[in-house]
Amino acid sequence: MEKYLVGTCSWTDPALRGSGWYPPAARDDPEERLRHYAARFPVVEVDATYYGLPSTRNCTLWADRTPPGFVFDVKAFATLTGHSARAGALPPDLRPPGPPQRRLTPARLPRGVVDELWQRFTGALRPLWDAGRLGAVLLQFPPWVRAGERGHAFLAECRRRAGRLPLAVEFRHPGWLAPGERERTLDVLRAHGMSLVAVDTAQDVPDAMPPVAAVTRPELAVVRFHGRSAAWRTGGKEDAYRHSYTAEELAPWRDRIRRLAGEAEQVHVLFNNCCGDAAVRSAAVMRELLAA
Question: 111, 163, 184, 199: which one has the fewest Cβ atoms less than 10 Å from its Cβ?
Fold first, then answer.
């Protein structure tokens, strides 16, 4: 098994498609685009599933169009992790009456809808799971999910609903990893068999997540690089993720990732600085650093 799998948090991002990284024949052909990506990187995060449920058909196609050993980390649908979602993103039979553009929090959905969304989400991933192509399901918690009894109960609820699926958790409230709370958070993740997602972001912005890297599930550790924009979590997508990592910025992470690999069977290193081809370029730099 390869120790380090380095890739990006999307292969379909419009900025990447328009950057010139894909050859002309692949830009508008979903199959060729994925094949081109998978020939260059061994892992990718599926970001689109945060905005809408995946389909069994697409998961089957993803597995069929990628080589043996290639894996997908799949981001959980927004509602499943406590975010609001567009009403129009919900399946028609689960959608409350009203405009499709309005945003609905999980608390505003009819009773039983969240349970049904979990079942459909996990069921759609079955082709990836059966093919050995599912790396992890990423649970990206919103900033208002905080450490404490309610936060720990939510973790337990996600674990129950996900069944045996491998889970990786990214927190967006720094309290989870504050010095007085960090060990308890890591212990809770270990108890539920969940991987902590270590993150790299700008550290001079409000509520910055500390770059804590720890193994809480021996099978897999995950690191996500969001860029170091001063507009992180405040600007639009282009501004929030506008950053190209240098080798000097990534060098300290090389040692952290190697330490993770000493305790975990595998480490997924994913770049989310999705502005033009910055993510694929940053991933290539990190791959070179880890190979040195």
Answer: 111
